[in-house]
Structure formats: structure tokens, C-alpha cells
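hey m, so remember when u said the C-alpha cells were messed up on ur end? i reran from scratch. heres the input so u can diff it against urs
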Amino acid sequence: MIRASFCETLKSYGSEPLENWPPPPQPFGNGVAVHTPPGPPFAPGVNLIRASSNRGMGGDGNDGRSGGLNWTFTAGPLRLYPFTLVATLKRRCHLSSGCVPSDAADMITGNDSPSPPIAAQPHNDPEAGVVDIAAASASARGWASDEEFSDPFDIGNTKNASHESLMRWRQAALVLNASRRFRYTLDLKKEDEKEQRRSMIRAHAQVIRAALLFKLAGQRAIVLGTAVTPPTPNGDYGIGLEELASMSRDHNNSALQQYGGVKGLSKMLNTNTETGVVGDDDELSERRSAFGSNTYPTKKGRSFLRFLWEAWQDLTLIILIIAAAASLALGIKTEGLDEGWYDGGSITFAVLLVIFVTATSDYKQSLQFQNLNEEKRNVQVEVIRDGRRDKISIYDIVVGDVIPLKIGDQVPADGILINGHSLAIDESSMTGESKIVHKDQKAPFLMSGCKVADGAGTMLVTGVGINTEWGLLMASISEDTGEETPLQVRLNGVATFIGIVGLTVALSVLIVLLTRFFTGNSKNDDGSVQFVRGKTSIGQTVDGAIKIITAAVTIVVVAVPEGLPLAVTLTLAYSMKKMMADKALVRRLSACETMGSATTICSDKTGTLTLNQMTVVEAYVGRKQIDPPEDGSQLNAAVSSLLDEGIAQNTAGSVFPSKDGAGIDVSGSPTEKTILHWGVKLGMKFDAVRSESIILHVSPFNSTKKRAGVALRGRTDSQVHIHWKGAAEVILASCSQYMDASGSLQSIDEDNKVFLEDAIETMAAKSLRCVAIAYRTYETDKVPTDEEQLAQWTIPEDDLVLLAIVGIKDPCRPGVKDAVKLCTDAGVKVRMVTGDNLQTAKAIATECGILSAGADSVEHSIIEGKTFRELSDKEREQVAKKISVMGRSSPSDKLLLVQTLRKLGEVVAVTGDGTNDAPALHEADIGLAMGIQGTEVAKESSDIIILDDNFSSVVKVVRWGRSVYANIQKFIQFQLTVNVAALVINVVAAVSSGDVPLNTVQLLWVNLIMDTLGALALATEPPTDHLMHRPPVGRREPLVTNIMWRNLLIQAIYQVTVLLIFNFSGKSILNLKNETSEHANMVKNTVIFNGFVLCQIFNEFNARKPEEMNVFEGVTKNHFFTGIVGTTFILQIIIIEFLGKFATTVKLGWNLWLVCLAIGIFSWPLAVVGKLIPVPQTPLAKVFIKPYQRCIAARRNSD
């Protein structure tokens, strides 16, 4: 018996060993049934037995931490446990001689050569598959200053905020209902647990492959191949799900070869590696039935009952329920069941109503977020079916599909490489290591969820959905751990400030009322003293004390605005839903509001500012301009042949018959498609040309090289041709000759070079993208013959022969000039960052309105990426603010510009579509990826996806971002007005008379109007044009502006003054002297309550337009607002007229209703007059910030 003890964790989802494979479905995660594929019969004579495990894992609440496991080898056939997991051995284990040999460890990760020692790795984003730039640039942006004292609620950008700063504001916040308050914030504990679980599950693919490692540890021998069980037919297919899954999971090349390689496997799967599956509904359904669908179980959203439970967790509501229960018991005991239940019962009903309405609102928000998350997960991928390339949902992929892959794509399923050129895969999402793995026929296995880092290729799908490692990973961690936004954090600070004031007021009221009660200064409505020592019964004393405590607690309910931070979530949920209709998919909540603070937008040109509808409008062959450009009769046959070869072979696109057979369809990037269309018009026969030569090696296009190349060998003459295509000036610089229209070679002397350069500049000045096509012959004996050497071969790019230069027209999008002007008027500077040359960029920028006619006179407004890159840091900062156009820029130039602008205090939005744009998208305050042309890597690094690639949609995002901020400010103004008025009225009345005019039930109703219903009404206001005629709101500017202070103080003072006058002199004003004292008090208090509520209803209109005179403009367009205000008014009438016992009110006559309506309506003209009062420029918040900071500091120190 040989014992091998591992340093890190080996875990099993199953708890019992299996005697027979395949095992039955195993529970995975939260009760998801998973069919476990079989393991190969490794090492006869060696049996693996699990000795011990500290903790389980999955959906049972365990946090994924683990202890060590001991494994024992015994005689007998090897039996693996289902879904055994191992931590990534090379990264997480210290591989010592007592554990496993290092070369064997390399076999686990699929590396043929020994690996160097693993150094500390930077944190990787497992979703995006790129190195986390935040870690590298944190110190540059001064995040280390988090340790110094600052307002914990002042977090300018939560996108890259540290866990320490996020934890700090949570600890500083005053919270009554944590489960509700923090529902939509990042769950820090779950995030850590999720990362631990992700780390564990990533290694699933490796542990089964580690079965060979176990054998090596036991036998100290290396066996590179094992016998493979012949495949078992599965219906119409020659291989079953279990064999496919086993081969893919184990990366078993021996099995693949035994099945006949890719060709043999494709025959077993009834697919063609060139044309794919047939693709009719019946066949696709049959494949899903045999091999599964490309979906994975997701955890269900929270039920309505869960939201009810969370709404119930509010401490003040619990206290009120307890007080209501005590009041109910005492009331029934002293007054009997008929009359005694009213006080306690009405409070209980009011609390339950608050809980129900709150839960309903939260539940609807949750459903909206679920729908948006579904949209985010629904990736569109390209697939070859029936010889055509189509875009389909990732969920529709089936086993047997042929998938073309290019830079930036996500591998949508497990598969086998059919063919590829320089294909490099970033497997960090599965292995946790940022090492790029090159794929070829020796290492053909592709894992779902990984990203294409370089090159291109096609793959055959062999595993989908839950039968892939990625599917298991997603099924386990699909639960969203939330995300907070800067506005949400700041509103928690506002809520904490208001809450501290409210608690102080409530405590003061409690002390005053209890003192007055027990000293005999509190009187009943009939004038009798409420408490007389020695005479008042215990029951009456307790009942009186409970009413006082209930009143004080209710003040806390009103004073602590639990719903204020959640109003951000409400308006974001509403905005995100509406933004989908405006072609913008929000991936990060915080980006939606941050976009409202954007001061500059760095935009791509192609497809964003332009239509992406390219056509070749000019063409030069040598010194001759071909007019019209598609007239192939003007070209010599030799020139046509070489052009056809260069166009058809040096492309990632394809030409195929259209569905109706009447024409052709072309696939590829916009530029590729344009040149292919041009080639077809010249007479190119795409399939015929491609069949005449063999591709030896490909150098794919990327935005750094700005060119693409291919090496070919003819099938008949074995001659090697090298073709290059790319930016005209880049290709021209590598050419020593050109071929004229007659087919003769001419040297590019100074005169010819000047002519060609002038031709390029002339076309560029007409807004044309200039692309050159060139070739050269190459000696056959210099081409590497070995496959590995050929894969590393650098295609020669010098001494080229220029074949053609074409000018491609991509017209500006309609309306883009107006959109740019709208941004300029809104204080947002638009900068164009493009890979095109300066002349083309300048022409397009002028056409779009980014540059004015005299832009040349402004130094550095137009600059090349290389020039900007070579400046010193200080010079770069001086130049960056002036830049309007950056031409010939690389992704690193774009990143450098973003970093410089952010360093200067700008809030930067960046558009991008390529894989290399990912760092800039990640670094920017708001990353905007293109939905049509954007790669999956770019999309996953972005915050918002522009679904139609249109710059006008970017501007709409700015409008919605500003709308989010404006709506929150409206809600804050409305809520603070209610807070101030309710608190002052109750405090003054309590101190002076020992009674509060607004009782518990009434205040709970006011809280409902103010909190949930007010948020629904005001947080769902659509954006207005007024928002785009003012500068961006700075991220450090106070939430409550001086204008808001003016508005709310005027309304609060008015309400407090009028209602307190009614409280103290209401009997005489309302002519109630002839009524009984008790009835007169009831009428007076009812008028105060009714007038107060109507003030809030009418003040909601004022809150809609804090700065404008006409508060009714567009009110009928917001159905939420009109519906909620109307419903509130109707419910108020019902409460007054029909629920007197419930709310402690009496019915009012029409004359008193007119009085109440007059009190409420007067807030409208008062608001108009108030807006004429000027306000100081210095924010009042700065005056009060120091005592507030001292209070927060004291709370932190006490913690």
C-alpha cells in the first residue's frame, strides 16, 4: 500500500464511492441533478480510496474552506468518486518530492514541458480572462490613501474600490434593516466564498486527468497512453455522451486518435467539418436529446415570501408589533373585545401594510434585474451550419456544431480544434493562471468559457452545458453577489446623518413624554390627568407608557429613511429597463449613474461615429486609378489573378450563396466584407481561388500591427506566395516595387513613392479608409517544414510588391453631428480615437462636428498615437486636455490617454470593440463596448454594451445617467421635507402639550407615502432635455444642493407653521368651541393629519422640478407618478371618511376638506415664489460637514 498525501484540498461532490460507472445523477450545488461522465479505467491493480475530508461543499451553506485529504492506494480496480475536485496543484500546492513529481504535475495542466516555479500572480478576473489592471494602477490613483481618515461614504467610484473601503462605509452606516438595506450591495462574504468555490471548481478538469498522477505516485512510472474503450453508439450517432465527455474532460488524445481524429469523430457525430450540421429543427432537437443543451441550471430568484420576510426584519417595525401586541392585550382586558382591539389592531395592520407594500416594490425590482441578467448572459456566437455562417444564441449550440473562432471570442462549448493558425487561448477563467496556451493538432482540446487571445481557427463542439467544466462552474456560482454604486454609498451617508438626528429627536420626545406622564402633566382629552401616583392602575400605566414608546419608535421609523439608498436601485432598475429600448445594455449598475458625471467621451470612429456600411469608392493599381473601381476589365490577367488570391486567401471572412440562392452573402469584419465584395465585383471566384493553393501560415490582423499576412503554396506549381493587407502607409513602407495595370513590375523610386503617398492623402482627406494589398514570392526551401517551426515562423514582410490601394467610404451616421453638439452643450468633450491615419480621422471628425473648420490652428488638438506616447508624463498631461482627435492610435495609446485624463480629474467614458481595447475599457470610469462588432473580451471588460454601435445611443446613456442623479435629488428633497416637518411638529407639540398630533398609524401612513410610494413616483421620472443643458455633476458635489435646501426649508417651514397654529389654536380657528373637548381634539387632529398628507401630495409635484417654474410639464407622460399620486389621494379620502377607528380620525365636512385642500395647494404658489430667492454659491453642506465627520469618526472609534 502506497500513501500519497496532498498539500491542498481534494474534494468530492459525491459522498460515497461508486462501484459501477457511469454513476447515477449526483446532487450538485443546490439540488441540481448532474449526470457524471465515466472515468477511464486507469491503472488496474490500484484502487483509490478517500480517507478523510473536513467539510463538504455546495449549496449547503458551507463556505468552501477545507482541510487536507489523505488518499490511499490499494489493490483492485481504480474507482473514482464523482466530480472529485483538486485545487490547482501547480498554483496552490507546494509540490514536493513527498507529494508528486514536478513533471507529472505538468501533465495535469496539459503542458508538455516542465514549468518554472510559480511566482506570485496578479489577481485575474476569471470572467474577462485578463489581468486585473486595478491592482497595477491602484497606487497611481492614490487608493492607498484609504487608510487616512476621510468620510467613509465618500467613494467616488465603486468600480475598482477595495474591500476595505466598502466594508468601512457599511460599518459606519446607521441601519435598522440590514437584509433590506444591503440587498443590492456587494455581499463581501459571499464574494470571498464564491472566489474560493470558483478556485475549487476550476480544477475539476485537472483532477480527473490527475488519475494518471495517482498511478505515478503509486508505481513511480510514466505511462503516456492507456487503452480506450470502444465508443458505444448513441441512437443515430456513433459515440455516446459519456465517451465524449470523458475524452474532453481528460484531454485524452489517445481516445481522440482511436476515434479517428477530428475527421473520424465528426463522422461519428454526423457532421461535416467544412459545412457543419444541417441545422433543421428536427436534427437540432435530436442532438439536444442525445448530448444535452448548452444551458446550465441557474439558481431561482428570491420568492415573494422571502421579500416579505426581509421587509419584516426592520427593528423598529418589530418593536411596534410587540408594542401593538401588548396594547391589544391590555385594551381587550380593560375595554373588552369590541372596543379594546382598535389601538393595537390598527398599529398591527398599519405595520403589515408597510411590510406588504415594501416587499411588493422590492420584488418587482428583483424581477427586472433577473430579466436584465438573462440578457447579459445571452451571448451571440457565429456558427457554420449547412455551409453558411449564422449568428445564434450561445444557448442554441449543439454537439457537432462547427464554430469559427477569432481574437476576442469566448469558446462557447467544449470542443476539438479542426484547424487553426497561431491560435492562442487564455484559459485563466478555468485554470486561474494567466498563461496563454497555444492550440494545435497536438493540443487540440478547447475548454468552454476560455477566450481566444490570438490567431483564428475552427472547432468541433463535443460537449455543451452541464457536461462541461464551465457549465459546472456557472451552475455553482451563478448567484449574483450584488454591487453597490457611488450614489448608493453616499445616500447611506445621508440616511445615517438623518437617522442620527431622528434618533436624537425620538429619544428627546420619549424622555419628555415619559417625564410629563409620570409627573402628572399629561392630560386626557376631557382634561383629566392621565397618571396619578397610587390611583392609576398598573394596566392603565403600562398602556400609557406603551403609547408613548410607540410614538417615539414611530418617529424613528419616519426619521430613519431606510428606503433612501434603495431608491437608487429603484431608479436604476427603471432606467436600465428603458435603456434597453434605447439600445444600451447595462452590465454594471454603477456605470449607469457614473455616466451622468462623464466629462469626456473617447469614441472609436468605425461603426460608432460612422455607419459601418463600407464600400470601395476609389482604387489605384500602380499609378492608374481604376474608374469605376469595380471594373476588372481594366486589369491585366496576372494582376487580377494575384489580387484574387490575395483577397480570397488573406481574409478571415467568407463568401457563400445566399439563402434564396439569388446572390451571395459575405461574412467577416466590415473591412474584410468590403474588400471581399470588391473582389467579387472584379470577377473573383472565391471557392475556386481558395482551392488552388494551400495555406501554410497566417499572421492574423490586430490593431497593433495594422496588417494581416498569409503564406500560400500552389497546389500545381508549388510556388510560395506571401500576401499582406493593411493600413496603406504601413504596407507601402514595406514595398520596393509595384505592379502596374498591365502586369509589369515597376520600382518604387522617389517620384513613384510621392505619387502613391499623395494618392493616399487625397483619399484620406475625402474621409476614405485607405487599405493596401501587396505580395511577394518566397523561396520554397526557406519555408519551415516541421510543424512546430512553421507555427513559430514569422512571415517576411519586406521587399513587397504593391498590387492595389483602395479607398473605402464609411459615411457618418445620420444624427451623429447633432449628438456631438448635444454632448458639447452638456459640457461633455467628445474625442475621436481611431486607428486610421490623421487625414482620414480629421476629415471624419470635421464631418461629425468634433473638429471645427479652423481646428488646425489649435495646437495638439490633432495628434498621432505615437507622438502622444513618446511625450513625457508632464507634457502628456498638458497635451491630453487639448486632444480632439488621435489618429493611428494603438490600444495602448488609448489606455495611456484614459489614464492621463483620469489623472487630471476627468470622468472618462471610452468606447471599444476589440480584444486589445479591454484594458482601456476596464481602466475607464465607464467602459462602453460595441454590441455588434465588439468581441466577447471587450464586452466582458465593459460596463455598458451599446447594442447598435451608435454614438447617439452613447449620448442617450449620458441622459439616463443624469436622470438617475436628478431623480434621486428630487426624492431626497421630497423626503427631507417630510422628515423635517413631521419631526418638528411632533417634537414641539410633545414638549409644549405632552401630546403628539400625528399618532403611530398616521405616521406609518406618512412613511409609506414618503418612502416606498414617493420613491416609485419620483425615481421613475424620464429624462428631460433640460438635463443636457447643464454641466456634468461632479462626483464630489453635495447631493443636497443649495437650491434643494431652499426649496425644502420653505415647504417645511410653511407646513410646520400652519399645522402648529392649528395644533394650538385649531379649536378657535375651526370654530369648535361649542363641541365637546374630546370631539374638538379629534377634529383638530384629523385636520392636521389630513392637511399634512395633502401637503406631501401637492409637494410631490414641486419635487419634480426643483429648478423650474412649471412643475406640471410632462406630468401626464409619467404614468407611475400620476397613478401613485391619484392612488394616494383616494386612499387618504378612504382613511378619513371610512377608517376612523383604524386611524383615530373623524369624518370631515366639505368645508373642512376645503380647508385641508387649501393648505396643500398653497404649496404650489409658495414654491414658485421661493424659486425667485437667490442661493449662495458655496454649498451649505460644507458648513455642516465638520461636525458630521466628527460624529462619524466617533462612531468608527467606538466600533
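this time it looks ok to me. The first helix runs from residue 89 to 92. if urs says something different then somethings off w ur setup not the seq
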